[in-house]
Amino acid sequence: MIQARLLSVLLCWMSPIVFEYQGEYQDEYQDTHHFKGEYQDEYQDTHHFTIITHHPAHAAANGLNAAYSDNEGPIHIAVASNFNAPMKAITTAFQASTGYQIRTSFGSSGKLLAQTMSGAPFMVFFSADQDKPAALEKSGLIVPGTRFTYAVGGLTLWSANPTLIDAQASVLKEGRFNKLALANPRVAPYGTAALEVLQFLGLEERTRSKWVQGENIAQTFQFVSTGNADIGFVALSQIIVDGNIRQGSFWQVPPGSHRPINQDVVLLRRGATNLAARALLEFVQSEEAISIIESHGYGHPSAGKSGNPLKPTPYIQAAATP
């Protein structure tokens, strides 16, 4: 008890930021602050992530960001779940060419934003949209001038059943399914895009009773791949390999039915002078990284694309035939 009290006094006197980790925290956390604005009510999970911290704005005022510029050890980055596969390929190539090491936490963009604002030790944040990096920029939590679009996502309606979805998405429009999976629109940008598609088609209210929402796009994909949902809106990158569908059937959502899924990355203040963090951002803009990104079904701003179209397979060709 005496030791605990002494530690408490010492922590208050030194004004540090202390992190207590409980297991793997990339998907869950305990929110220890009250957020105002759009994201205030979104982050109430209490499973694996606990933070004991002063607000990051206070840390910046006290000059504590200098403590995060350490160039030793791996850098810690936050990455939206939809970008799992390409990021693994990018970090593998980056580490091989530079020798730098990376720790990656995947999750919904909304939860990663909340973790970042609570003081999680991320140096770089790859979001699945532009709104959340813009919110961090507005809060003064990024290095000015480092925000840019690294990928343009594609959305698709997918089923593990190879004959369920046709080229007109009739199964969705006619309601011939048990459950429709989509990521939670309140925290996941791909869920927001899915909701916009349903609104565009006039199907939001007609389908709502059959929705099953994933915490992120990875969980949404799992709902469909396991058969817990007949169909679901997933990231195009989740269902293709080298431009071909892995399995099942799909309807590639027309880009005009939802806002473009422009995905931005930012260098956070704690990574301001970290050489590896800056090198990673440069590498992401290289031809090698862009090739990896496009091979996983993403568009790139330099090419003016919004998600690469799938190469025809026998079923796709048959489905597209009038």
Can you tell me about this structure?
Helix 3 (84-98) packs antiparallel against helix 11. The model is unreliable at 1-69 and 304-322 (pLDDT under 50). This protein has two domains: 15-152 and 264-303, D-Maltodextrin-Binding Protein, domain 2 (3-Layer(aba) Sandwich), CATH 3.40.190; 153-259 and 313-320, D-Maltodextrin-Binding Protein, domain 2 (3-Layer(aba) Sandwich), CATH 3.40.190. It has a five-stranded mixed sheet. The protein is 33% helix and 19% strand. It has 322 residues and is α/β, with parallel strands linked by helices.
Structure summary:
This protein has 322 residues and is α/β, with parallel strands linked by helices.
Provide the fold topology:
Layout lengths: L1 H13 L3 E4 L27 E4 L3 H6 L13 E6 L3 H15 L3 E6 L1 H9 L6 E3 L4 H8 L9 E6 L1 E5 L10 H4 L6 E4 L5 H12 L3 H4 L3 E4 L2 H9 L5 E5 L4 E2 L2 E2 L3 E4 L8 E7 L7 H10 L2 H9 L18 H7 L2
Parallel strand pairs: 3-4, 3-5, 8-9, 8-10
Antiparallel strand pairs: 1-2, 5-14, 6-14, 7-10, 7-13, 11-12
Helix pairs in contact: 3-11
